[in-house]
Structures
1.
Amino acid sequence: MIHVIAVVCFLMIIYAMIPYILSAWFSIGVKRKGKKEQGMALTFDDGPDPLYTPELLDLLKQQNIKATFFVVGERAAQYPELVARMHREGHLVGIHNYKHHCNWLMSPWKNERALEQAARIVEKIIGEKPEYYRPPWGMIHLFDFFLHRQFQMVLWSRMFRDWRSKGGSEKISRGLLKKAEGGDVILLHDCGVTWGANEDAPHYTIEGLRTALPEMKRRGIRFVRIDEMFSSRPAKQVRVQKEKNLIHGA
């Protein structure tokens, strides 16, 4: 019995822990942080949410900021008009799997089918297949490096535990103003219904952004989408091309 437990633990280390360390600590196989001059990327997970996502989109539009949304496939299917609005207003739409499940507890093939299902849903809504994928909780397993080459995996370089209400909006605004810097990929959430989150947490995220964004812009911080941050072309060129594609596809 002890030998069986030892073998299982060894396999889990190979399957889950080592890939997690390689990706989260050393950025191997993932996009996690850009260069300082590339701007800052605001990213939002777990949505869309019928209450908080429209409010967030209103704020981003008011501030003329483009962001990246990693949507959950089943929620995208439930609220397609919100995903369409993200795309229409110039934001990048990536996927966060079909359900918000831990990759470590799914077989590689089940995870592959879930990703393809989420990608088909998003493609049907916005007319183009998503290229960027963020694993729920950033938990990457060994096969993620080999089976999902059609997606670029994205983690983050800065987070403020905004999925919890504790600390309120000040936690978010203070973190953004004091800790965030150029090149950061900021992890935030526009939905609070996933395991471990508080349902009202996105309210404080949005209010924190409402306070911080004008000051960050005043300081000269430039906000970009993930594809702009990690493209070899200047961000302006990437955005102009995306806008042309959107116009021609309209």
2.
Amino acid sequence: MQPMLYSSAVGVVLLLSACATSHTAVLGVWLESGRASSVRTIEFFEGGALRMVDEHLTEEAFGEVSQETGTYEWVDEARMTVDLDGLASVAGATLMTVSIVADDLTLTQPDGTALSFQRAHGETSPLAARRAPGGIEARIVRALTAINSGQGVFAAACSSGFYAPSLAVLERPPRSGGPGFIPSNLIRDSDVEQRYRFVLTAGSPVRSPMSCNMAAAGTGVEMYFVAAFPRAGQPGHYFGTNHHAGPIYWSDVEIPVTLEGAPPDANPILR
């Protein structure tokens, strides 16, 4: 479980080390290092206000933002209390030792666990510059996950172990009846279609049999890459995936077609 900096209805006591020469040293935005599930910032304002923001990096909530606000109050030259609102916690007060050295902030818990932060300069989040509005990116990631799942079922149940060479083939229902392997409206939702484009790039065709949904013999493939990228003029990150059981990747720039392995300079999204 990720260590927490706070508890509900009680104060978190922070001890400021001698490395910080004044109370103003803690003011500003700090970006936590080493978090995999979200980009977390903590911001101390003049006057005693505090805000903690998480931008999530998981498949279910990629790009979505949650935050907690609260207050802090200096007890003396070396200590402060912090109260965050709306948190359901019964852990009680947590005593944190704080070290500020130049642009590095370290919060050490009583058990010795240290949380590291760096002072944010300019843009506070690597997601913010390109983030699409309205939670659309979480829907893009879920759509890519559904495509991967559909490819896995198609290969196992419909095409003798081979993947579909196009999204259209995945949408097509089996000849015996039932739904297709991905919903026909998966990427045609009005918000999704207006902002993002999906492209499946198939590997070289192999000697595959006709599939159960009438894809021609010899059109099945052993590898594929699906990209989702913002349409011209639309904000948003770039996404890609290439295996039915593999991760979804994201990047600030277009991800090159990568039929096998991790795409270069792209970040895997946690499940």
